[in-house]
Amino acid sequence: MPTARTGPSFLWLLAGGVPVVVVLAVLPPFIGVYQTQQLTYGLAFAIAALGFNLLLGYTGLLSFGHSAYFGAGAYAVAFIIQRLHVHSLELCILGAMLGAMLVSALFGYACVRHTRIFFGILTLALSQVLYSLALKFFWVTGGTDGLRASWNGLTLLGGLIDFKGSGAYRRFVVSYYYYVLGLFVVAVLIMWVIVHSPFGKALQAIRDNETRAGFVGIRVRRYRWIAFIISGLFTGLAGALWVPLNGLTTPEVLYWPFSGEIVFMTVLGGFRTFFGPIIGAVTFNYLKVYAVASSQYWQLVLGTVLVVLVMLLPAGIVGTLGQLANKLRPKQLQQG
Amino acid sequence: MEILIVQILNSIFQAASLFLLAAGLSLIYGVMRIVNLAHGNFYAFGAYVSAWTVGAAVALAASRGINLGVAGQLVLLPLGALAVAALGAIVEPTLLRPLYRRPEEYILLITFGLLMVLEDVIRLVFGGTPLTAGSIMDAMGSIPIGGLLYPAYNLVVVGVGVVAAIGLWLFVYRTRFGVILRATSQDRRMAAALGLNVGRVYIQAFAIGCFLAGLGGAVVVPAQAAVLGMGVDALVQAFVVIVIGGLGSLEGALVGALIVSAVRTAGVQFFAEIELAVLYLIAVAVLLWRPTGLFGRA
Predict the structure, then answer these.
(1) How many domains does chain B fold into?
(2) Which residues of B touch A117 (CB under 8 A)?
(3) Cβ of B203: how many Cβ atoms within 10 Å?
(4) ipTM of this model?
(5) How many domains does chain A fold into?
(6) Tens digits of residue pLDDT in A57-82
(7) Of B106, B239, B291, which has the smallest distance from its Cβ to A125's Cβ?
(8) Does residue B89 lie within any of the structural domains?
(9) A42 inside domain
């Protein structure tokens, strides 16, 4: 058994994170509108994967139904914009997170009664309830057409920024990028605090040994439920941020293969690390965009990547880099 | 009254194919503790191979002036199932076996990767247009039920389902290989210690499970076209079946398939909008009430 890693300190996070955020912040003028947009997608997915990994990496529960919370957030935003004619994105996000919280609290209450494969199947079955409802109740959800959520009616920061007049699209892409980046940073900080708090440590104890965690006095089921809700909230936020960018939400984000993609991102980056899901989500987005652009058989490409990844690099990108670093370190010490 | 009979027949027809699919999934889980997410795509692959084979054979025979007849076409149908079994026999030792020592998440993921790969392989090989073996359906005609006409082929599928259920039960509970299968399922290490070649049992079990999935797909194509995405759809239905019946239980797969098909048939008639949602909610209810399903053992 590997010993539990206590993880780097908060100062370390600042030292490593601030330069990355600065680089991300100065990037848009250099990479153009299209790449800025892709990076925004990547950051939104990163929030989803971050939330998902609280369950997989820190609580040891593999959910195959996170499309439900992403979709709940996405549909809530589209619904609020279209039916309630709200323009402030903050209000939309608030509504979306409320929606995602309700759904994840309800689903989570049922799901945390099980672990391992039953947990996976239960989350999948519940997410498909939402999918089939979105598909069939077309007068509410638009059926397979989905709901449109146009960017040009939106205002950011309580009406400070709106998108009217010439060059509006370009302005939207750039300011929306900073908006998502800001929320991403907040999400990372909150998640960092959560996983390093006593609550986060309790989750890891449950992951490593459920029975012992119970004996220590941790209320296993309650803690799992709270973790489930937090996880759903993050994923719901990601769904909410994704909609204005995509301009449209369709039942596909509720369909279970999308849950599989969230799992894919997380494992690609490495689910035993804090930053793995973030790197994985951004990488996955680029991988998918280029696979779709270069071949109509993009699923073949992505599927092969996943198979090779699981066979050869099970620790994911960040996990493998960490292992390499650990291997190099003792050598340097010996030489010195 | 006649409509009721037709609806019951329809639901048993659906149940037959669903049972084959779910029994394969359940068998693989029972013996190897693998939840195979690519199982639905094995089913789709079987459907495509069968439809393509029958279509090509009919066309070839017609160009030579030969009429294949119903029997000739029916014999070709199970080729899809054999192709899927062969595929399974390749996949298990190469992709799955190296992962048995790792946490189960990895197996789930690799089967998800396989699902994506198979989805596109089907498109690459057979193209995007739906394929059917409708010539069988046409050749067999229909039989009258009261004042209604019912396709005779559907009754063949019901027959296949019944034979498969009985055959599978005899195979698992009354043959030597069935004993080996159950022994491996109960205690893999003890079975290996007693001299069984567990590796071979695993290949065989996986191939049989895949064969059943392929057969489930093969029997469907004369009645419904094989389309892209059918595997992904079928998998969730098979999940519902084995959740209701119990993971790893053949009796459960049978009862689950009958329940799911009955609910779907009734759903299409009476509550079309929430038909699928009701199905998933039933699965959720069963999982909460009896986590091991109606026939499952912990």
Answers:
(1) 1
(2) 35, 104, 108, 247
(3) 19
(4) 0.83
(5) 1
(6) 899 888 988 999 999 999 999 888 88
(7) B239
(8) yes
(9) yes
